[in-house]
Amino acid sequence: MAQTTRVRGFDLRQLEYFCALARMGSFTKAAEDLGIAQPSLSEQIARLEQGLGAALFERLNRRIELTPLGEAILGKAQALLEDAAALADRFEQAREGVHGPLRVGAIPTILPYFLAPLLKGFTERYRDVDLHVREGTTAELVDQVLDGMLDVAVVSLPVEGSGLVMKELFRDALYLAVPEGHPLAPAEKVQLRRVSEERLVILKDGHCLRDETLAVCSRARARFAGQFEADQFLTIFELIRAGFGVSIVPEMARSLSAGCKLIEIDPKASRRVGYIRLQRRYLSKAMEAFTEHLKQSVQKHRQ
After folding, report:
1. Residues 213, 248: contact at Cβ < 8 Å?
2. N or C: which end of the chain has fewer CB within 10 A?
3. Looking at the domain 172-272, which fold is it?
4. Phi and psi for 210 in degrees, rounded to 5?
């Protein structure tokens, strides 16, 4: 064995020699099997017997046999060697494999619609990863990544923060959402200035999609009669269905849009969805596997 470990008067190398001698029944054959000189084998067996305080073999004229004590400990010695070999294999697997804690964050307009459906596939594939998921606003998640509380966060890019790695995954198209009975509902495309004087239903301050919505409206020079703020898309779509106003929503929230019509904005508008991590932070295999899982899932969806 490459490394010797001593346990109560004997070491694993001596146990290896003991088992080989018991198996071969000859010092000469055991030494050949182990690839060592016969005097070295004899010396180590003698030391083992001295450490245990009893003989393990009876030396006969042309052969050797185990003593009752040798018979008694042979099975345990073999088990110890097997456990030691398994421990080394397990260490190599752990060093090379994907394991350990992984702390992931995502904003509320991405986690339930994009990230959550992907988590089952990741956890089933990487069962040794201890995954923790946290929802928060962009500002909260950026701070937590910078402070080392999160390993990676899925957000709308870009974000402000020195020392961050930002990787775009895909563009999430933005649509104008109107009630099914709205005059614009039959349209395939719409210029936002045509919906001026409508009430705009928008997420509350702190959501990056709010800022993106206002930026899209500003570029289109769209003027709205007023704004109503909501905490989540469920509320926004309920208000649209009730005819209370219109909104700008991302493609990934389409599953909530029953009773509403999503119309493509002209010119096209979208948000950049990606992930951030700390540049100076050690890139663990768990983090590599997670970000690769995100990329593969996006590619599969495109295909």
Report:
1. yes
2. C
3. D-Maltodextrin-Binding Protein; domain 2 (3.40.190)
4. -60, -50
